[in-house]
Amino acid sequence: MSPQALPASPFAWADLRGWNLYFLSKVVLAWMGALDLKILPNLLFLGALLVPLRWRWARIARTVVAVPVGVALYYHDTWWPPFQRLLAQPGVLDFSADYWLELAQRFINWQMVAVLALLLVGYYLLKPWLRITTLSVLGMLGMAVVALPLPADLVARQGQAVAATGNTGGGRAPLAPASNDNLNAWLASFYQQQSSLKTAFPAPASGAPFDVIILNICSLAWSDLDEVGLRQNNLLDRMDVVFDDFNSATAYSGPAAIRLLRASCGQTSHTALFDPVPAECQLFSNLQRLGFQSELAMNHDGHFDDFIGELSKYGGLQAKPMDINPLPRALVAFDKSPLRRDGDVLNSWFKQRQAESTQQVALFYNTISLHDGNRIVGADGRANAADYKARAQMVLGDMAGFVDAVEKSGRRAMIVVVPEHGAALHGDRMQIPGMREIPSPSITHVPVGVKLVGMGAPAAGGPRHIPEPSSYLAISELVARVYALNAQSPPADRDWDSLLKGLPRTPSVSENEGAKVIDYDGKPWLQLQGSQAWSPYPEDKR
Question: Nearest to residue 374, comparing CAs of 350, 408, 338?
Fold first, then answer.
């Protein structure tokens, strides 16, 4: 059959021409789950392009207006956050050229490129034989039918069925069906409840001295360990306690460190992190009152995004950082600054610690060895690309070696491993790998471990696991309990059940400057800055 013999299309009066590729690509990608197609604005855009215009100047003017509108609408249909949020990442202009190139390559999804290439070939092969505009219109109408909401009575019956089954999650009252009002009310109730929580530290008491050592690791989440096959590792496996469901509550370093340093009070909103708080909310202020001298060490200079300034100004950590300049450069950071190896810094600090006369010390150690875009310095002095697994093995091994050194020294210590957030190695529909603008569960679900060195027998049979949802308040509470137990005279045997019983539970609520993610009834919900609407966080693309 020749092209002339085909029956006339019902849309023969209008032709989308090149716009057919625009709409067909959206239909295909939305069918694959790669787009969150907003059907109403797309149908309006389609209708505007289909309206026949008699004058050539009018058609040209429409195209001039349609191109930027189409680009913006296409971006709006992706799962990515608003474009202004991409540029709002802290210190984004300080990234090295190598890191910018690496990020640019991650935006390319070769599977999607292959699909769009096949679509392009099919378009030009079928164009002489079919009215492609007909396919585009039918495709968009089909997506509109799929997107139609369920009848209101069916939605109501489904909500009643959920309430009837209870869905209580272990005795809790059933939650109201998810809606903007209900989610906002739940979040407000969460912050109100958290505002009343505070760790009750004991009064200063005599007891065998010990140190509190906080190892704060940038870019380490359970999802990252799973991605590189390191969930079982020589650091976490030797802990006495491991929190399985710990929420870092943010996806950025500064806010994460502030939250950790303010662990002694309940969780606050992101904006409240930069408001003054009483000293009783600051973990290191509480420890200082108990006789611990605050100390600070990092494997970086702390200047990026004024990290070191935020520790003192908002976290209440009044300590001069250890001088790491004599130590050899081991990595080059994403912002071109030199990094030292964690083992070198920790061993250097511990050597200084053993020479001190101070009875008790509280150390805050921060490392960014696992940060996205870092490079390892080779034997020739050049910075070479290094995958995450190699760096993770180095960091975990160095810290496990540090724990060994503390054990062999005979010094008593409480070592707490607390990652800031994950590295987002895998990415998802809303964020490319390495992007942390939205604090998704895979980024904020981090492994936290506690090791008591020289303070009684370790937990039998490996680490004790805390499966309940937890956050920083549980760490502060555990520190207070260990201090109280240590102060008993004569020293009490370590009763792990009593030590861990009833630690504060904290529902999963996470915030960055431009996004909120909450766990509501077992599902993550997202609210972006500038919007009052909540939407389900899209499932992982794997």
Answer: 338
Burial status of residue 19 (CB atoms within 10 A of its CB: 0-12, 13-18, 19 or more): buried
What are the pLDDT digits (tens) for 373-390? 898 988 777 777 889 999
- The answer, yes or no, to whether residue 9 has pLDDT greater than 50, is no
Going by C-alpha positions, the residue among 332, 311, 411 that lies closest to residue 377 is 332
Backbone angles phi, psi at 486, to 5 degrees: -70, -30
Per residue in 98-119, is it b (16+ CB within 10 Å) or e — as a string? ebeebbeeeeeeeeeeebbeeb
Residues 6+ away with beta carbon under 8 Å from 375: 98, 331, 332, 383, 384, 385, 386
Closest CA to 518 of 447, 436, 423, 440: 440
CA distance 149 to 147: 6
Record the tokens describing residue 117, joined without a space: 């290439």
Question: Other CB atoms closer than 10 Å to residue 505's CB: what's the count?
Answer: 13
The CA distance from 504 to 288, in Å, is 23
pTM of the model: 0.82
Q: Kindly state the tokens that stand for 241.
A: 């306690």
Over residues 440-468, the pLDDT tens digits come to 999 999 999 999 999 876 767 789 999 99
| CA distance linking residue 404 with residue 82, whole number of Å | 47
- Residue 247: strand, helix, or coil: strand
CB-based contact 104:97 (threshold 8 Å) = no
Residue 483: both structure tokens together:
């201090």
The span from the CA of 480 to the CA of 474, in Å, is: 10
> Are 33 and 541 spatial neighbours (Cβ–Cβ below 8 Å)?
yes
Nearest to 169 by CA among 526, 473, 448, 508: 508
Q: How far apart are CA 505 and CA 385, in angstroms?
A: 40
Whether the predicted pLDDT of 163 surpasses 50:
no
